[in-house]
């Protein structure tokens, strides 16, 4: 066999080996990505933290129904551990949807992402024309809390710019049904609304309620009550243990099980959906 023929065969062998390695890596990568989604994904800490980087947060604000887009974003970035390589558009999302749609656990997972983000229509505190009366919030998910024993903070606190009880209206973020109302030692005067897709929105530390009872239907933007500082006491009406604020909790309801998720990213999404008053 000529040396030229030998060189060609060696080149072909190297090329095929490289191609085999590339295909193997691609196959392993896809299998690794597919393993991110199981029937227990919505129970996992990575999903419950609801991490969204700024570029994606800005993009979903342009969408009417961001739920499935976020579902795909979390799968493609390993729930925020990996950075987005490009700003997504309709074509990119279509490719990712095609990739995941036949996964056996995708429909259930997508259902919960859509239930959270597509049902929520407005920020829970209206926008005041007078700037001094604004509110702020930060990501305090699972920060330590000590009342009644050590626990993780399963929610997000919206802090009042003016520390005045009964001044800030609290609005329902979704359509739904009032399922809980009344005093809790930790949450004070609280009200809970079950959205139409079985997500429970919990509003705590109220000063007072609107004229609502358990079983009543509410619309997104409807008044639930007023922000206060109630709670951290066995005695109903305990106040003054902390500044005026609104605690928001979000729970996915599967039968009798409740899965808490971080409201922080959703509140950011709703910031430009504030109802203006005064």
Automatic annotation (TrEMBL):
Coiled coil stretches, renumbered: none
M23ase beta-sheet core domain boundaries: 152-252
GO molecular function: metalloendopeptidase activity
Gene3D superfamilies: Glucose Permease (Domain IIA)
Signal sequence extent: none
LytM N-terminal domain boundaries: 34-119
Name this protein carries in UniProt: Peptidase family M23
């Amino acid at each position: 066999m000529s040396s030229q023929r030998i060189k060609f065969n060696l080149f072909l062998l190297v090329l095929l080996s490289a191609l085999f390695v590339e295909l193997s890596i691609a196959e392993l990568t896809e299998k690794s990505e597919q393993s991110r989604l199981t029937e227990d994904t919505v129970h996992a800490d990575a999903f419950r933290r609801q991490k969204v980087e700024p570029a994606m947060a800005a993009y979903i604000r342009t969408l009417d129904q961001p739920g499935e887009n976020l579902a795909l974003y979390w799968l493609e970035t390993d729930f925020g551990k990996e950075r987005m390589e490009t700003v997504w558009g309709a074509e990119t999302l279509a490719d990712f949807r095609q990739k995941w749609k036949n996964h056996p656990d995708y429909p259930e997972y997508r259902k919960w992402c859509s239930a959270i983000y597509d049902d929520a229509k407005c920020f829970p505190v209206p926008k005041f024309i007078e700037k001094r009366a604004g509110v702020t919030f930060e990501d305090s998910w699972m920060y330590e809390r000590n009342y009644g024993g050590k626990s993780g903070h399963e929610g997000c606190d919206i802090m009042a710019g003016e520390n005045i009880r009964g001044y800030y209206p609290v609005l329902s973020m979704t359509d739904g049904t009032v399922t809980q109302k009344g005093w809790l030692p930790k949450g004070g005067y609280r009200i809970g609304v079950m959205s139409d897709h079985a997500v429970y929105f919990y509003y705590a530390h109220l000063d007072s309620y609107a004229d609502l009872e358990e079983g009543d239907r509410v619309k997104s933007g409807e008044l639930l009550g007023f922000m206060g500082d109630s709670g951290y006491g066995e005695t109903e009406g305990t106040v003054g243990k902390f500044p005026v604020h609104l605690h928001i909790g979000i729970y996915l309801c599967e039968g009798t099980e409740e899965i808490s998720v971080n409201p922080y990213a959703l509140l950011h999404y709703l910031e430009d959906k504030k109802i203006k008053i005064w």
